Structures are given as C-alpha cells and as structure tokens.
Fold:
Amino acid sequence: MKPQQGTIVMYCREGCEDSELARAVLASKGVPFREVDIDRDPQGLAFVRKVNGGFESTPTILLPNGQILVEPSEAQLLAALERLSLLTERR
Structure:
C-alpha cells in the first residue's frame, strides 16, 4: 500500500499516547496527513499487522516515499519530515 503523492497516512488508535504525539507534531508543523483508526478500519488493521510482523503498533506512519515509521519519537518524525522537505515554517 503506497500513499497518494504527497500524502502521509497515520495508522493509529484512539487513546494511544504515541499517536497523539505524532498527531500533535504533524499538526504543529502544518503537515497534512490522513488518519486511519485501525479499530474501525479492517484494511488499515491488516496493513499495520502486515508491516509490523503481526503486531498492532501505533502509530504506524506511511510517508509519501513509501518509508514506514513505527512508533517514532518526535525527533525521528521531524527528521523524516525534514528529509522529505515536508516541513514548513510556522509563524
């Protein structure tokens, strides 16, 4: 599963602190993304299990270049966004 050009897809679940952190980082930097709640989307759940060896690790973030980040720290997420030139200056 590859995201549409320029789209970040964040597979998450309600109440997940790591997902809340990733959501906050993306929103604060003005980076558009689409959320998929794996508790409500069977295809999303199947994807997360497939790429995480059967585990339901959230967030699992699919970047536009096909790279997958699993439970990234804030620094790891920001570094990936920087490498893809997805960060915009927020004032």
